[in-house]
Amino acid sequence: MLATLANPHRFMGFSRWAAPLCGVVAVLLIAPGLWLGFAAPEDYQQGTTVRIMFIHVPAAWTAMLAYGCLGGASFFSLVFRHALADAAARAVAPLGAAFTLLALVTGSLWGRPMWGAWWVWDARLTSVLVLFLLFLGYMALRSAIEDEARAGRAAAILALVGLINLPIVKFSVDWWNSLHQGESIFRAGGPTIATVFLIPLLLMGLGYMFAFGALWLERTRAEVWRRRVRSLEAQAAA
Amino acid sequence: MGDRYAAFIWPAYAITALGFAWMVLDTLLRARRWRRRAEALQRQALISEKGE
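Predict the joint structure of the above. Result:
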């Protein structure tokens, strides 16, 4: 599958229908997720603020997925010098930054009424802030170097080094004492969250990931066109 | 949800909606701009090839 899509022509053919399809699936998942989320009862401890969970947690999951995709694309770009992988890496960074920012802001709006603070220098929050800075750093590095090939290689190295932060984000609540609540979904003994909250949360989580998929495919298409423009301009100038 | 937490819940949803709107608009506009530019340059290149 990956080898087939590595051909830019095949990728453009595939993404032409896959991007809108992912967008439609995202809407079909997010709409019932939102409805069930608002219909869910109040949490016995957190009251109605539990509704922030349905947008905060999926944003955090998608931010981590986006960084994983950035790392994967950077690996293929750096090791195999694949232009489409480099285009995909460049395309995913702004989306990753946006989802991470959404996770940070909605988390802050949830933390204020529950913890009494907008922000604490807790391991989970700090590692997610580092994730956001890694996305920004990746974009800044790409724009700072004029030669696109060199910029891509330097940024890919940064992205690969930054992969170390992903397990830190995931396990920070287990490794350190944290104000942030512990893992309650993807844990060895199964989810500890009530089904009435779990179903809308999973629908929203999947919906966010399909939305991310649709946007990533479309942004990669835009990046392929941008490179085609650069190449045609260079040919015209020669 | 007009309770004491509404001031935190609604802004969280509003910011998320704005974030999604930005991501969708920026992505679609960017794709359209570069596709049109590429198509225009390809047409131009074809015309100059025929001219030669």
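Residues 21-52 of chain B form one domain.
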